[in-house]
Amino acid sequence: MKKIKIVICAGTTCYLMGAANLQSLGDYLEPDIRSMVEVVGTRCLGYCKNDHYGDAPYVTVNGEVMSGSNMPRLLDKIRSLAND
Q: How many CB atoms lie within 10 A of CB 9?
């Protein structure tokens, strides 16, 4: 079983732009997928540099950066990886 690692930026900008809602990601995952996903938070991923604040919140999925993340997009990405 492959693990899907989700890192959610909890820096101030990302947190205020929606990362706070993403922290409950596990509650939205189907039971068969939940065991495949590791969700961690981090202080700051550093992607807001150079005035990219409007692209927050940032999340990485297996190292791939997702900007403008929200629950539906993140769930779609996880489901896609889980079904590969």
A: 26
Q: How far apart are CA 75 and CA 39, in angstroms?
A: 12
**What local confidence, expressed as pLDDT, does residue 1 receive?**
56
H/E element, 39: strand 37-42
How far apart CA 60 and CA 67 sit, in angstroms, is 9
Cβ neighbours of residue 33 closer than 8 Å, sequence gap 6 or more: 78, 79, 82
Q: In angstroms, what CA-CA distances link 63 with 4, 16, 32?
A: 10, 22, 22
Kindly report, residue by residue over 19-56, the tens digit of the pLDDT. Answer: 999 999 999 999 989 999 999 999 999 888 777 677 89
In the block, residue with structure tokens 């938070």: 41
